[in-house]
Here is the input.
Amino acid sequence: MAPSVDMKQYFNIRLKTCICYSAVVLLLVTPILYHTLSVTYTVSRSASNPDAGYDSKDLTADFNRPSTSADTAHERQYTRKIAKRTLYPLTIDSPYVINSRNVCTNVSNLKFLIIVHTSTDHFQRRRIMRETWANKNIFKTVNLRIVFFFGLTKDKTTQELIENESIVYGDVVQGDFLDTYHNLTHKGVLAYRWTQDFCQQAEMIVKVDDDVFLNVFILLETYYPKFQSNNRSILCHFVRKNKSAIHRNRTKWIVDKHLFSGFAFYPVNHCLGYIVLISRDLIRPMYRASFLTPFFWVDDVYLYGLLPNKVGGVKYGDIRYSLDKKTNKGLECYFKTKKCSYLAVIAWKDNKHLFEQLWYAALSQLSPKMKKEVNPLLLPETP
Here is the structure.
């Protein structure tokens, strides 16, 4: 028997309903699948071909264009467009929780901006830095400024102390991300962004961790002249591509297998990030490169490898023999020789007095040229 008209209408309605439901589910699921696949694909592809998987013509074309007042708005707008495609550093466009925007305002002859990656509760380290080698009154005519970067803390007392520190010193920048080991890349991108927004006149950018003692006299006398004639330059403890292993086992540096898939070693040149000297013409291009470089949590590889690789034409200089990671060798050099040439020493450990001891040792070893540059009040008394 042929189905009645009512039955035909019933089946037609059910068929149309199923089609509609299927279409809705497809629309909801497709972006999620695309997003997941995009993250996996773009991070692994970016290692071997930095431009693979990106529609980047309108951004990379003006990497080297001088910054203008309209750049910030343009960059925020572009970020909103690309953020839906894959995962990028949060600090490209997230708000500042605390922003010391006037650190470099009206500062002339600003030779060095020192950006310090620090932890929220390292109050003592920051204080000693300000009182010793990062004091803005060290030199008579040369200026330096220091800014401390960190993320959010879950401890209310620590946050209150940070806010008070900001009022007292005016040199801290807090980003809208949790301050953890796996969020150091967010911290680094925040520092690039802040520098290009609020301190473009600094001639050399010096990034250090907060356990590093930096000899600013050697920095001015030996390393600053090298940056006067070099563009797109980075000096650091240099790691050549295909030399640093990608850890897949259970260590604190473990990298998921879908990231850099097929690689046993990082395929980009990069730096160990405890101290990195960067020419100022690289800050804006590297910040803008973060718009196109998917987030990767190993900050040394991302900030000083993937981003410079995206920019292109970056010259690395290896200064590892002027740095000491193991502390003892650096301390022996400063305390047992008349003239130590180490630019930086990882020196905090468990002894807060090491920073101060190294500072006094550095003051006692000033060259005649540096003695003329240093504020006379800091010079050791001569018998």
